[in-house]
Amino acid sequence: MNDVNRTTTSAHDSGRRQFIGRSLSMAAAGICAGAVASPAGVYAGGDDVLKVGLIGCGGRGTGAAQQALRADDNVKLVAMADAFEDRLRLSLRTLSSQEDVAGKVDVPPDKQFVGFDAYEELLASDVDVVLLTTPPQFRPMQLKAAIEAGKHVFAEKPVAVDAPGVRSVLQTCAEAKRKNLSVVSGLCIRYDGGFRETVQRLHDGSIGDIHTLIANDYRGSIWVKPRKDDWTDMHWQMRNWYYFTWLSGDFNVEQHVHYLDVCAWVMGEYPVKAMGLGGRQVRTDAMYGNIYDHHSVAYEFENGVRLFSNCRQQSGCKNNMSAYALGSKGRAEVSERRLEITTDTTWRFEDKVKNMYQVEHDEMFAGIRAGHPLNNGKYMAHSTMLAIMGRMATYTGQEITWGQAMASKQNLSPKNYAWGDAPEVEIARPGITKFV
């Protein structure tokens, strides 16, 4: 899932496809039955304008805004917020140039908020739905503020970079459920029709008892923005947020969380412990911050099932992004490239499906309109923790249990958010770096 700066993404490798045939019930996405009234009930069965605010105006945020504006006939983008003014302006120009959504974009200058506190200003404005697509470091506090303000939320993955953040998100999502507010996750694979059918077949026992899972994310390098003379440390790190663990969680959390989540979805539970290795073989220059360029983690579930997770970001190497499940009766490939189950016969999902990035927004807005808002809180938080636990294992070189990971006191947040000093760049050294 190369969605760091993506504005449009196909549902499968064959390109953009239109939905044909099979209809997926809203229940498949986890819509809660029997929801009570306000505030979601205000829109149930109505045609009121749903006013959207975008927090985080990079490529992924711009794409999410496009998808939100396509998801409902009566929706409008009315406010935008970003740490950087140039990112906000570029995003606004892009959205205003898209013929199918331009008529739904109405963001006057006084609704364009810039700076670390821009999200607070946006939440104080008249919006109903917010899209949280800032770097993962900011997700827990922005999600908490949005739910406190009574807003429906789309939250990109991952939802935290450390255990305190995960715990905060779980509490916030419980409060969102109590207040009948949406929390829809950017773990978009769970909204893909082909993945849904394939995973359901695995849940129905198509390959028997699963004993091994494999999650791969082998890819090349991505963007880096050279430091300018007038940039402070914080400015430099924010512009290159992907390369700093405190901002991104490391790439095994920021990106590989997708296929780790697929494996957790297949199992219906989370591992109890993990051991791993990782390091920096290629991205050794200071401009690459302090994240690793490879991680390999062996997870173990309570029943003894093993999950072998491998991810790499190094140019000139073979790429592969996929998940595999091996069982007593056969095996399955669960990837964007191929959805296939092999036993004594072979089943392959070949139907055309709607873009999963679009589906997550379609179902979010449909849930709001129906008065039954979605809440993906538990799995988006726990899958984020699964990736963080793997990073804890690779950074320390120790075996880390789920209980230890969830109770970790390590808080990667800076002392304050300001355009001056930034957190010290420390590169983890297995066997020396301690678990906190």
Explain what the structure shows:
- There is one protein chain.
- With 436 residues, the protein is an alpha/beta fold.
- The chain has two domains: 26-189 and 357-377, Rossmann fold (3-Layer(aba) Sandwich), CATH 3.40.50; 193-352 and 384-399, 2-Layer Sandwich (Dihydrodipicolinate Reductase, domain 2).
- Helices cover 31% and strands 19% of the residues.
- It has 13 helices and 15 strands.
- The protein has helices spanning 59-70, 85-97, 118-123, 139-148, 163-178, 193-203, 233-239, 245-248, 251-254, 257-267, 356-370, 377-396, 402-407, and strands spanning 50-55, 75-82, 112-114, 129-132, 152-155, 183-185, 210-219, 273-279, 294-300, 306-313, 320-327, 331-334, 339-342, 346-348, 400-401.
- It has a nine-stranded mixed beta sheet. A six-stranded parallel beta sheet has the order 3-2-1-4-5-6, sandwiched between helices.
- The longest helix is centred in the last third of the chain and has 20 residues, at 377-396.
- It is globular and about 60 Å long.
- The two termini are 30 Å apart.
